[in-house]
Amino acid sequence: MRMHLNPRPRKKKDKIYTYYSLARSYRDEKTKAPKKEIFENLGPLTNDEIASWKMRLAVFNGDLTNLTDLRQIEFVESKNYLDVALISHIYDHLGIDNVFKMATSSKEIGVQEVAKILVLSRCLDPSANCRTVDWFAQSYLPKIMDVQPELYNKDKIFHELTGIHNKKKWLQKHFYSHSKKLAQGAELYFFDGTTSYFEGHDCELATPGKDKTTGFQSKTILLCLLTDKKGLPIIWDVFSGNKRDVTEFKKIAMSMAKDMNVSDVTLCFDRGVASASNFDAIEELLNSKFITGLCRNQIDPIFDIEKFSVGTRGLLLEKYLREASTSPLANKKLSPINGFCRMGCDRFFKDLGIQDKRRHVVSFNAAIFEQERCTRTKNIEWATSEIKAMNEELSTAERDRDCTVLEKRIDELLAKGSLKDIIEYKIIPQANRTSSSVVQTFRVDYTVSQNAIEKASQSDGIFIFITNHTESSDNGHFMVSAAEIVSHYKDKYVIENAFRHLKSFLDLRPFFVRLDNHVRAHVDICMCSYFLNTWIYHQLLEKNISLEEFYRELKSNCPTCLLKSNGQDIVLLKSLSQKMKNILEIFDANKIIGKEVLERYEIMPVK
User: Are residues 405 and 356 located together in one domain of the fold?
Assistant: First the structure.
């Protein structure tokens, strides 16, 4: 006999109340019509009471005990099983556990165990490393790993962090081997740097600087990262906050050559990392190629912007505005305009050939052109309104003002809006008379240069790519086309997504450790978790399941419930959703809900 919780809404004085009862559904033997038998009225229930009754019914209906009174079942606690079991299964499948294995270790719990706990926690419940102690004890991971919960504590974490970081080189080699297995087509790698900051104690690595997201911080570091084209982390390093990615790139290149034996690949990075020294390092150390961009002040010798803005730009904009809604198939049929071919809806590009041993490709993005012009107009309106507000404030000043402070304030304002060459200003001394004295103040006179606006707008939407892909085929065409160069650079978003994932989803910052090796170990742990998530993402991609859906399903299906009945402990795993069953199939993980494994952990599944 299967019973269920039966809700019955009732309306009283324009309010709807829900009353519950215990019921059984069955079919009439003669008419075969569905009917319902009420056993007991329970009245209104709270959410906790509803959950408790559902668990009791799950035990009762599963024939796990010979109960005659559901009230004998007491809900005690819940622990997560499925989430830690599945991520642990994937972690072991990818061989990460073996990287941290210490062959000479005889400890009951060491680097291998601590690393796994920290990485899984970072995936499932990102928080400070010390807070993982409670998380570990409240999950099924101690049983899965066969580790006594009391052995994992704050002292143990700090004791093993240096050992975790000492495995970084082998970890990177391991990730590189997985990247090679998944590689399709050209070997393309992306490099970039970002900043992060500390809370609490000082660290030798930390220096005052500007974090790219949160602004000025008193304690910052630089994190440099190299990923493959799928976003898998390959090489990373941590530097002092006063360093720049353009200067530290050589160390990443040296690591690629020395530790990974990498050569004959293409490295892609933004123009902030571009330098002759880095180009030489790529060619000499790695015997490889690069794709990057030129800064705007480097464009003039390569490309005649004035000539482009007078003739070609108008034709491209006209085509963009007229045919923005055409299909990609229609775009392919469009003939080039003054040598500019079309890519997608809004981008046009042209191969400029080889100059000074480097090849250049110019790109014009019509949508970005409009966006940059609009942004400049808004910035000018904002800056002039701010200056007007300053003048109003200065005109009513009741105490002396400092000209140097005012000048610095205006310069920062213009720098923020990229308007230093567009808005010119003069600070004119003024005197305000008050009832008791004369106050020294100022007035700001400014002019907006239309010529400067026109000159600045000439480079709107323009981007010049620089590369050493200069080889030609027998027919005289470049072996790597201009379209491929533009497309490769567009794929740089994967490393930008990597930093977003590290900082938000995996909660990389702020740092709560201070020793150099502990900071580096924290980054290593985050990179392991990011590698796991990226690998999971690509396995789910073919099944049209997002990473967010994956973790949402895990969260809703993971709890087990400990119930007590007549002194008997019963651990119950809820019935899994169909999507969760499909996910287990994708990762070949059905064994973690198999009878043998669940019996080992004394878990009973709800049928």
Answer: yes
Residue 582 to residue 590: CA distance in whole angstroms: 10
Domain that holds residue 425: 306-470
State both tokens at 578. 């169909």
For residue 401, what are the contacts with CB-CB under 8 A and spacing of at least 6? 394, 439, 440, 441, 442
Closest CA to 55 of 47, 18, 595, 135: 47
Q: DSSP letter string over 492-527?
A: THHHHHHHHIIIIIS---SB---SHHHHHHHHHHHH
Please tell me the distance from the alpha carbon of residue 85 to that of residue 101, in angstroms, as a whole number: 20
**Residue 147 backbone zone (phi > 0: left; psi -120 to 50: alpha; other: beta):** beta
**133-160: per-residue pLDDT in tens?**
889 998 999 999 999 999 998 888 888 9
pLDDT > 90: percent of the chain: 47
| Alpha carbons 268 and 486: distance in angstroms, whole number | 11
Helix (H, G, I), strand (E, B) or coil at 267: strand
The CATH number assigned to the domain holding 520 equals: 3.30.420
**Per-residue pLDDT tens digits for 31-90:** 778 888 887 788 888 877 787 777 667 665 654 544 445 455 555 567 889 999 999 999
Check pLDDT > 90 for residue 93.
yes
